[in-house]
Design a protein that fits this description.
The complex is a heterotrimer of chains A (310), B (228) and C (498). Chain B has ten helices and no strands. By secondary structure, chain B is mainly alpha-helical. Classes of the chains: A alpha/beta (310), B mainly alpha (228), C mainly alpha (498).
Chain lengths: 310, 228, 498
């Protein structure tokens, strides 16, 4: 009886030794997005997941873990809790490596290692079509005598800080501000906020009817050549909102390389580039070294913004 | 004067009136109202307070008092800032939610305790069966199964999902009294199907560092970790 | 209109079709087992289906949701035990028919009336979608954060008031559920409530953990501590098609019950019980033979089954349009939608109209499939009701671990689920309602989220009410509370005036 058992176990282990000796990926992976579905990072990460399935044959799922007004941090913590073997990959915005270490929840500056940055959001300040201002200067003039309420994705996040810094530099103050889980056409048309800080994808359906006041980023958006950047209009630095793939610190290099390879292929592929042309987002691939350098630069820019707001 | 006694005696000992008829046996006793006639839709949604009600109400009251004691520090009430010109800035503060809860909890708990107390008094007065001790033993009996569940949860890190589920299923089946070979086999088989569907096919996440698998040869260990 | 065909084509994928089949048949079996309801099944399967494709997992769980009530009628009719809690009223008329030897007729009548109820509410939903769909975007502009806050508040008030005889208990449990949802830390808003500096509490309680604990584990404990019922052998002979034609004899009852079911489903907070109660009472007052109700009146059976099957599809409407779920099952479907990449809310018609059509069409297909399956396999499915209770309880316990652990891979979650299981067990023994805790968590978190987000625009207190929708809803809340108070005072007055 015992001999039969040993024989069976050995047989199994030989059959599946192929499985054992295969290198990464040898199991399903999960791409974790700490935002509700629908936005650019969601669409592009799903493209990466599809590419993953085609390339490796292993299942890849995309999970949304919105933080309910807490920003991306609860979702980011989930990636930290997973083992450092590449089974859970985070698709994070700039706020996670930059703002995360500043709030006391367990993310440190070196908790995550960047695999690649692939998206720059067309992050804009938008107001509804019948608002009496079309750019930041007019907004400043209007706000001095009237109440203007800002809607954003979280007070500690980079674009919100850029907006507040711009407001301070232009000499006005928002009467009040609220953190939302989702900011889209409905937020403006239902009157939940006067000015919202959101990405172009979310206000795509009503783009023709609303006023885009400014763009938060390094360059003007291709689709909206008449909208100046916040840097141009208010004189703050041009920190950008980007999204990249991150893994937990200590993940083996071959894992990171594999993820980078597939990510690059997906992002430079036709579908992603077509998305870029349609929507005004910038889709590219910056590998691990470039990304890490960029994160350091952005840390300094954020410190500048914080200094303005003091 | 005629003797009333004798007439009464005649009446009492008359054959025509039988006060106690031994031929009526219990089986022949039937309720004149058949059981089904008592149907009412309202009875379906009826609510009556029963034995353990007062105990649970008191426990809830103590819990609410506990929450109230810590309300100041834990919900941010101590950090409140009510001098704001805009109402919105007050509503955004973190104590608004707990305050709304407390505003509902306190009256509800107090009303509930009063009602429970009234029902308790009534059941005592009517001498209804009211063994609180029995009710409590039922509650404590269920702790046994909770203990089994927690041990099962813990043993998954030690023995791996497949083995601990099989052992747990067989153990519970045995404990619940299904001790024939047929039942042991059924429980083994069905728990194996469960493991197969959820772990092997759907790949739900189970703990990764399993003590038992460390003793297997390399290939088997990886296979077991992925599929079981 | 093209969204209609796009939605239909989404369903023509082989994986989706298999999922529909498994969901429909699985749902009937789950409903047929007295002791497991769709709530438990969905709570356990939800985290396990994350790895499937979006529409596939959605359709699977939807199948369970839509077909459980068909299965629940089987034990209700055959052995006087409701398979799901909402089939409780079916036991009266259905079991009486069985006792008269008419089991197949009762079963087929139950199936046909469920089918009618389901199709009625799905048709209403589809018509609304097609007719009002394009206007939903402008309609959506009326619904901002403050309005949804009021809708959730209205749902909470209606939920508490629906428990007429134990309002204090319902209110207390609702508030406790509300509080549980608020435990936790939100760093970007600088919020930390009731964390007591314990790390586990700082991440808050997850809804699925609480649901699995309160519904599944408590039911497992209940079954294991109880006794095995030994139901008598009931044979289903031929004649299963008799009842189908009988539905045509009572069109008024059928339509009225379906209407009540649909309306009660749309109103958040009110659920199948109130729908059944109203339709049963109305059917009885309209009937020519009211004394037969409870002892085998076909109208009674039709009233129950039609109304309770009309609720699921209708309950989807406030969920999809506003993002406010009306009952515990719908709240879980909301989580399913989130995982499938759909965010319910006023702008869903803009963003994903084909999804809406796929949803309701899938429900329709499921209804049709279930009826056809049941007509031919009732005999086999009826054998399931003989699974002994205590064994079932053990099984639920094994499955509960699956559900709880796959959410956050956290052992403390399992411990807390066990704790909630004990609480749920005690509540069940005392006949206290379980649903307010779950809905307190869901509606409470929606209320706080919307209030905090909408607070930016609230300058004066009146800003909360001076929008058209939130004003109307606030007025409704006030009216409902006022009317209930009046009726209480009136009945108190009547009792004490001799």
């Amino acid at each position: 009886m015992k001999k039969i058992l040993i024989a069976v176990i050995t047989a199994f282990s030989f059959i599946f030794s192929g499985v054992a000796n295969a290198d990464y990926p040898n199991g399903p992976v999960q791409f974790l997005i700490p935002w509700p579905p629908g936005d650019f990072e969601d669409i592009l990460t799903r493209m990466i997941a599809d590419e993953w399935k085609n390339e490796t044959g292993m299942p890849a799922s995309v999970v949304n873990r919105p933080g309910g007004g807490d920003g991306p941090f609860p979702g980011a913590l989930e990636v930290l809790e997973a083992p450092a073997d590449g089974s859970v990959i985070g698709s994070f915005v700039i706020g996670v490596p930059l703002v995360g270490p500043l709030i006391d929840i367990g993310i440190e500056e070196d908790s995550f290692e960047a695999v690649g940055i692939f998206l720059t959001y067309p992050f804009v300040l938008a107001a509804s079509g019948d608002a009496p201002y079309k750019n930041l200067k007019e907004l400043a003039a209007h706000a001095k005598n009237n109440d203007v309420v800002l809607g954003h994705f979280g007070a500690g996040l980079v674009p919100t800080k850029a907006t507040f810094a711009a407001a301070k530099k232009l000499g006005f103050e928002f009467a009040d501000e609220s953190a939302f889980d989702m900011l889209d056409c409905n937020s403006l048309s239902s009157g939940d906020a006067d000015v919202i800080n959101t990405t172009l994808a979310l206000i795509e359906p009503c783009l023709g009817e609303i006023n885009v006041l400014a763009n938060i980023g390094e360059e003007r958006i291709g689709k909206l050549p008449n909208v100046g950047t916040v840097a141009e209009q208010a004189g703050v630095n041009n920190i950008e909102l980007w999204n990249g793939l991150f893994v937990k610190k200590g993940t083996p290099q071959n894992v990171k390389d594999k993820i980078a390879e597939i990510g690059k292929k997906a992002m430079l592929g036709d579908a992603a580039q077509a998305l870029m042309k349609e929507t005004g987002a910038r889709v590219y691939w910056q590998d691990a070294n470039e990304s890490t350098a960029r994160i350091s630069t952005d840390r300094k820019k954020l410190a500048e913004l914080n200094a303005i707001l003091q | 004067m005629k003797s009333n006694f004798s007439e009464n005696q005649k009446f009492l000992c008359s054959d025509k009136v039988r006060l106690f008829d031994a031929s009526i046996t219990p089986k022949q006793f039937k309720s004149r109202i058949s059981k089904e006639r008592k149907f009412k839709v309202e009875n379906l949604f009826e609510f009556k307070r029963i034995t353990g009600d007062l105990t649970l109400s008191i426990i809830f009251l103590l819990f609410v008092v506990f929450l109230l004691i810590y309300f100041n520090s834990e919900s941010g009430w101590s950090a409140r800032d009510l001098n704001q010109k805009r109402v919105g800035k007050i509503l955004k503060q973190q104590w608004v939610g707990p305050l709304m809860c407390m505003a509902i909890l306190l009256p509800a708990t107090i009303l509930n305790i009063l009602e429970a107390f009234k029902a308790y008094k009534k059941s005592k007065r009517l001498l209804l069966p009211n063994k609180i001790i029995y009710e409590m033993t039922q509650w404590i009996r269920s702790l046994e199964f909770i203990l089994y569940f927690l041990v099962y949860t813990f043993s998954i890190t030690v023995l791996g999902y497949l083995i601990s589920t099989l052992i747990f299923a067989v153990f519970l089946t045995y404990r619940l009294g299904y001790r024939t070979k047929k039942w042991i086999f059924i429980s083994l088989f069905s728990s194996f199907i469960v493991v197969l569907i959820f772990r092997t096919i759907l790949q739900i996440k189970t703990p990764v560092n399993i003590w038992l698998y460390k003793f297997f040869p390399e290939n088997l260990e990886v296979f077991m970790k992925i599929y079981f | 209109m093209e969204s209609f065909f796009l939605g239909l084509s989404n369903l023509l994928n082989i994986h989706v079709i298999i999922a529909i089949l498994i969901g429909a048949v699985g749902g009937v079996i789950i409903g047929a087992i007295p002791g497991i309801g769709p709530a438990i099944a969905i709570a356990i399967l939800l985290p396990a289906t994350i790895f499937l494709e979006d529409l596939v997992s959605l359709v699977l769980l939807l199948g369970i949701y839509g077909s459980a009530m068909y299965g629940g009628a089987i034990p209700a009719i055959l052995i006087n035990t409701p398979g799901t809690p909402v089939n409780a009223l079916t036991t009266y008329d259905g079991y009486s028919m069985t006792k008269n030897g008419d089991a197949p007729r009762a079963l087929s009548l139950a199936y046909s009336s469920s089918f009618f109820g389901g199709c009625f509410s799905i048709t209403v939903a589809l018509i609304c979608l097609i007719a009002f769909g394009p206007y939903l975007r402008d309609f959506g502009a009326l619904f901002g954060q403050r309005d949804i806050f009021m809708a959730a508040a209205l749902g909470s008030v209606l939920l508490i008031l629906a428990h007429r005889q134990n309002m204090a208990i319902a209110a207390m449990l609702f508030a406790i559920g509300f509080l549980i949802s608020m435990v936790g830390r939100q760093t970007s808003r600088g919020v930390a409530r009731y964390t007591f500096d314990i790390e586990y509490l700082a991440s808050g309680f997850n809804l699925i953990v609480v649901i699995v604990g309160i519904f599944a584990l408590s039911q497992a404990l209940n079954l294991m501590n109880g006794k095995d019922t030994d139901p008598p052998e009931t044979k289903i002979t031929k004649g299963l098609f008799k009842g189908l034609a009988e539905l045509k004899k009572y069109p008024a009852v059928a339509f009225i019950s379906a209407f009540f079911g649909t309306v009660m489903g749309i109103i958040p907070g009110v659920g199948e019980f109130v729908a059944q109660f109203f339709s049963y009472s109305t059917a009885r007052s309209l009937s020519k033979t009211p004394s037969k109700f409870g002892y085998g009146a076909p109208e009674g059976l039709i009233a129950c089954e039609t109304s309770n099957n009309a609720v699921p599809a209708a309950a989807m409407i406030p969920l999809l349009a506003l993002g406010v779920p009306g009952e515990a099952l719908t709240a879980m479907m909301m989580i399913v939608f989130f995982d499938a990449g759909i965010k319910p809310g006023p702008d869903i018609f803009e963003k994903a109209p084909d999804f809406l059509f796929s949803l309701f069409l899938a429900l329709l297909i499921i209804n049709i499939l279930v009826v056809i399956t049941l007509l031919f396999t009732s005999k086999f499915i009826a054998k399931i009701i003989y699974i002994p209770n205590r064994f079932l309880g053990a099984f639920i316990m094994i499955l509960a671990f699956v559900g709880v652990f796959s959410i956050r891979n956290n052992f403390m979650d399992c411990a807390f689920a066990a704790g909630f299981g004990l609480l749920g067990y005690i509540l069940r023994r005392l006949n206290w309602p379980l649903v307010p805790i779950v809905l307190g968590m869901v509606l409470g978190s929606i209320m706080i989220e919307k209030l905090t987000a909408g607070a930016g625009k609230i300058k004066f207190w009146m800003d909360l009410f001076n929008r058209p929708v939130s004003g109307i809803l606030a007025l409704t809340i006030f009216l409902v509370i006022f009317l209930t108070l009046i009726s209480y005072i009136y009945s108190y007055y009547k009792k004490n005036i001799r």
